[in-house]
Amino acid sequence: AVSVSGVDGVHNLSFVGRGRPGQMNLKWFELSDDKVSCGETWELEFFHRRSHAFPDVDVFKTCYWLGKLKRKDIMSNICRSTNSAGGKGPAREVCTETCGTCNKTVGSVVVWY
């Protein structure tokens, strides 16, 4: 497999053989776009909000808690937040797989000849 990570859009693809003179008899090739882990773990904490009862108290939640929410509209609102506090980032930056904000994609080309 040949890695083509970090390449977006439509591109021309050329195959160049090394150490073999002549033309490659290309039987087939396969392009893949495989997601890899962004490193999210269930125990990671994100800044959720300020406490309603105690305005000086920050409320933190885990990615596990976020992933178990039954109401997806609430999860979506939490994932859209950009607020951080107490050294904890927002869910969109901490729980990237749960929020769908994981942007690590590895592309590869498999060539058989």
Q: Which outline best applies?
A: elongated
> In order across it, which strands form the biggest sheet?
1-5-2
Gap between N and C termini: 13 Å
Structural class category? alpha+beta
Query: How large is the share of residues in beta strands?
Result: 25-35%
Query: What is the averaged pLDDT score?
Result: 77
Number of strands: 5
The major sheet is characterized as: 3 strands, antiparallel
What's the alpha carbon Rg, rounded to whole Å?
Answer: 22 Å
Query: Which parts are unreliable, with pLDDT below 50 for 5 consecutive residues or more?
Result: none
Number of helices: 4
Order of helices and strands: EEEEHHHHE
The percent range for helix content is 10-25%
Could you walk me through the main structural features you see in this protein, from its secondary elements to its overall organization?
The chain is α+β, with helices and mostly antiparallel strands. The protein contains four helices and five strands. The chain has helices spanning 63-67, 72-80, 91-94, 96-99; strands at residues 2-3, 28-35, 45-50, 58-62, 105-112. The strands form two sheets. A three-stranded antiparallel beta sheet has the order 1-5-2, with no helix packed on it. It has a two-stranded antiparallel sheet with strand order 3-4. Strand 3 (45-50) and strand 4 (58-62) form a beta hairpin. It is elongated, with a radius of gyration of 22 Å. The relative contact order is 0.30.
